[in-house]
Amino acid sequence: MKKLLITGASGFLGWHLCQQANQEWDVYGTYFSHSLEIPGIKLIKLDLTDSTELKKVFQEIQPSAVIHTAAQSQPNYCQTNREESLLINVTASLNIAQLCADNFIPYVFTSTDLVFDGIKGFYKETDKVNPVNIYGEHKVMAEVGILTRYPQAAICRMPLMFGNATPTSASFVQSFLKTLQEGKELKLFVDEFRTPVSALTAAEGLLLAAQKVRGIIHLGGKERISRYDFGHLLVDIFEIPAAKIQASRQKDVKMAAPRASDVSLDSSKAFELGYTPLSLREQLLQVRSWELGVRS
């Protein structure tokens, strides 16, 4: 089996990707601060910002492809820790791109829908980027730098992702459920729109990109939805009685990083290549089924 190197294996997306990739690849996963074990995956502690250490790992593994999911992905944190964000989100990403270019192997980089300003929504790959926060700015810098160094790389702009908790991380769904199941009030934006997918769906898209994509592609879901409506769908799927969801607006909440209003993605290009997200209801039912299975 060919070797696939996945960075950020201890992260939410990276962990799910390792599970999915293990069916067809000999998977090596990197982690930095969160030690873990994933059955069937060879895990390596690696500081991606150390270019010498990174190059050594490449030489030892000699991967056939790389999917780079490791990132500092919290916009508020990036806004107040710009140098740290720059190192992991840009510099490390470009160093990996150069190593992949030197070995002429597929490189899949996970970017974000937050490269857009959120003014119009349903953004296509050809639409102009205009991020409103540092996290988005750094992802744009990485996109440009990667494609300059390695035009054959795949730049996958990812949407809001949800799914089952992993040993070292969770998605926003878990915090939503905890609040609602405890009978507490959950405030959700009615004016922020995304095209979310489960981490499992995202992983399938990334593996497809490793095989078929060169350049930029969007891996969003098929449904545009507000956080408020997503919350109500969650209540319906998980059958939470007397759930308390209150509508709020972005301007009502003070945050370090500015937020875009509508960064929904048009992922038609990926759909044509065989990327087939289920409906949000079906994906959330999968999450519920897994959650119930764990509890039993």
Give structural attributes.
two-stranded parallel sheet; 13 strands; alpha/beta; seven-stranded parallel β-sheet; 296 residues
Break the fold down into its secondary structure elements and pairings.
Elements: E1 3-7, H1 12-21, E2 26-31, E3 42-45, H2 51-61, E4 65-68, H3 75-80, H4 82-103, E5 107-112, H5 134-149, E6 154-158, E7 161-162, H6 172-181, E8 185-189, E9 193-194, E10 197-198, H7 199-212, E11 215-218, E12 225-226, H8 227-238, E13 244-248, H9 268-273, H10 280-295
Parallel strand pairs: 1-2, 1-4, 2-3, 4-5, 5-6, 6-11, 7-10, 8-13
Antiparallel strand pairs: 9-12
Helix pairs in contact: 1-7, 2-4, 4-5, 6-8, 8-10
CATH architecture descriptor name of the largest domain:
3-Layer(aba) Sandwich
Largest sheet: 7 strands, parallel
Structural class: alpha/beta
CATH superfamily of the largest domain: NAD(P)-binding Rossmann-like Domain
Number of separate domains:
2
Alpha plus pi helix count: 10
CATH class type of the largest domain = Alpha Beta
Strand content: 15-25%
- DSSP summary, beta strand count: 13
Average pLDDT level: 96
What does this structure look like?
This protein has helices at residues 12-21, 51-61, 75-80, 82-103, 134-149, 172-181, 199-212, 227-238, 268-273, 280-295; strands at residues 3-7, 26-31, 42-45, 65-68, 107-112, 154-158, 161-162, 185-189, 193-194, 197-198, 215-218, 225-226, 244-248. The longest helix is centred in the first third of the chain and has 22 residues, at 82-103. With 296 residues, it is of the alpha/beta class. It folds into 2 domains: 3-162 and 197-221 and 265-278, NAD(P)-binding Rossmann-like Domain (Rossmann fold, 3-Layer(aba) Sandwich), CATH 3.40.50.720; 172-193 and 225-262 and 282-295, UDP-galactose 4-epimerase, domain 1 (Alpha-Beta Complex), CATH 3.90.25.10. The protein has a 7-stranded parallel beta sheet with strand order 3-2-1-4-5-6-11, with helices on both faces. It has a two-stranded parallel sheet with strand order 7-10. Strands 8-13 form a two-stranded parallel sheet. The chain has 10 helices and 13 strands. The chain is globular.
